[in-house]
Amino acid sequence: MFGPKRIVLVLVALVVVGGVALPTAFASPFKQGFYADSAAHTFLYPDMQYSAANRDWEPWVTNSRSTDYNPTDIDTYKVTYHYNSALTYPYVDLSWWTTTGMTVPGSASCNKLVSGETSKCDHWHVKFNANTTNNATQEFIACQEIGHTLGLGHNNDADNVVEHGSCMSNDEDSYQPHSTGNKLHLWPHDIFHLNAGY
Predict the structure, then answer these.
(1) pLDDT tens, 143-178?
(2) Are 130 and 148 within 8 A, CB to CB?
(3) If 142 and its partner were Cys, which of 32, 43, 64, 171 is the partner (CB 3.0–4.6 Å)?
């Protein structure tokens, strides 16, 4: 579990693994100093009957959970409720839904910190752009926004080609469709961060 002391340990661990030094490009930044509260990551799915856009994004959220994150030390779980802002779900780590009026395909923000903590997020809000309908872009963005809720930050392709294939990429063409399969999934260095931190 992340905390101030654990962050230091993770960064040190990135330098040498099994006696082999890793290039600094593998030391991807974590997002704004926020991390998940534990390796158990429970997703609140919106009511699929409520919005056609929610139904359109649902396969990509589910696919990223099973393909990218469950094979790591992260365990994801799903609960489904009709979204109601008056209700609270204390055991849920991430609520996601679609919305219009966004200028980007997706966003992730910490809605509630763990009590007494300054870096552990108890509940995340993830929003996807209802007008983003290209499947490859949806797959890429679902992977990236979930990564943010676990502390992964953007990689910068301009700095190092090693990170080019990661869904955490933040290069100038990141929001374009990726028909070749690039940037649709986590890269090995992303997985290393998750397994070292949780």
Answers:
(1) 999 999 999 887 765 545 455 678 887 654 555 544
(2) no
(3) 64
